[in-house]
Specification:
The model has no long low-confidence stretch (mean pLDDT 88). The strands form 4 sheets. Strands 4-3-5-12-6 form a 5-stranded mixed beta sheet. A 3-stranded antiparallel beta sheet has the order 10-7-11. It has a two-stranded antiparallel ribbon with strand order 1-2. The longest helix is centred in the first third of the chain and has 21 residues, at 67-87. The protein is built from 11 helices and 12 strands. Strand 8 (198-202), helix 8 (211-218) and strand 9 (224-229) form a beta-alpha-beta unit. It starts with 12 loop residues before the first helix and ends in a 10-residue tail after the last helix. By secondary structure, it is an alpha/beta fold. 38% of the residues lie in helices and 21% in strands.
């Protein structure tokens, strides 16, 4: 017997082979398949040539299966079932799912958005496990390397953008965060006064200027960054009793200022910027995954309860 070359066998013939082995009759196989008898006869000839076996052999009582066909029949049914599972839409049941879902983001972003998702999932997917992963300098590379399923970020990817999808989950203006006793906390602030004040900056990379430096440069101004932090969470501790000003997205600023002796002030009119957008990012490999689609829908539903910035 020669080795079979799968490239020479039309897999569309396998359902025909299954019908032929089940009915042991060309006409009845054609009827069950909804095809013409000549078409099934031609398919049988191709199968015999491809498998190098007669498959159906004539006897006094009609047709019977060859020994090879008898071996093939149960394995063929199993194979066809597996192929059907392979191509049919994947099912997902949140009530029984035990998957591990990994997310990343900056500390304050996770603190604001992640609990909303957790509450939603604990109700609807009680066996699903969730894990936050410490964000590297570039969470987009973590998505690309399949280290996390989702990333919360207000940044734009500088590479692998073609492989990523995103959904905007929040939008807000920038606000100045300062001590309630700061000299600029009780009166309108000019761009010159803002630039002249000592500033704090949250820098994940620890390198380069902040986005506000470019805005000031457009106005012919510059500022002095006296403190760089790698985390948002400690901003209030360094701001509450000092002369430092931090410039942060409003919802993040409100979270930090809660029950602290801090004041939130708008930027000077000349320095106002378009609202900052925050996104949920995911990789193309999970774009059509039913589980991940469902999780994105749950986050979208959970965030509907998030009050607008300034309302709490």
């Amino acid at each position: 017997m020669h080795d079979m070359d799968l490239s020479g066998l039309d897999l569309n013939l396998l359902p025909v082979l299954d019908a032929l082995l089940e009915t042991r009759h060309v006409s009845r196989a054609a009827e069950s398949l909804g095809r013409s008898q000549p078409a099934v006869s031609r398919a049988l000839a191709r199968l015999r040539a491809g498998l190098d076996d007669p498959l159906l052999v004539k006897t006094a009582g009609g047709y019977d299966l060859s020994s090879r066909a008898k071996e093939l029949q149960p394995r063929l049914k199993e194979l066809l079932e597996q192929m059907q599972e392979l191509v049919q839409p994947r099912s997902f049941d949140p009530a029984t799912d035990t998957s591990l879902i990994r997310l990343t983001g900056l500390d304050l972003e996770l603190a604001i958005y992640f609990p909303k998702l957790v509450k939603q999932l604990r109700r609807k997917a009680p066996h699903m496990r969730l894990e936050t992963v410490r964000q590297e300098l570039d969470s987009f590379s973590m998505l690309d390397r399949d280290e996390v399923h989702f990333s919360f970020s207000g940044l734009q990817p500088s590479r692998v953008e073609h492989s990523l999808h995103r959904r905007m989950i929040d939008q807000m203006p920038l606000r100045c965060v300062m001590s309630e006793n700061h000299a600029l906390a009780k009166k309108p602030m000019t761009a010159e006064e803002f630039a002249a004040a000592p500033h704090g900056l949250v820098s994940i990379t620890g390198k380069g200027p902040g986005s506000m430096d470019a805005v000031l440069q457009e106005q012919g101004l510059s500022r002095r960054v006296m403190l760089r932090l790698s985390s948002f969470m400690s901003v209030a501790d360094f701001c509450e009793d000092t002369d430092l000003i931090f410039t942060l997205p409003q919802r993040l600023a409100e979270r930090l200022a809660s029950e602290r002796r801090l004041s939130l002030r708008p930027l000077p009119a000349e320095l106002e910027q378009p609202p900052v957008s925050f996104y949920l990012y995911w990789h193309s490999r999970y774009h059509l995954d039913p589980r991940m689609i469902w999780i994105r829908e749950q986050l979208n539903e959970a965030l509907k309860t998030l009050p607008p910035p300034g309302d709490g």
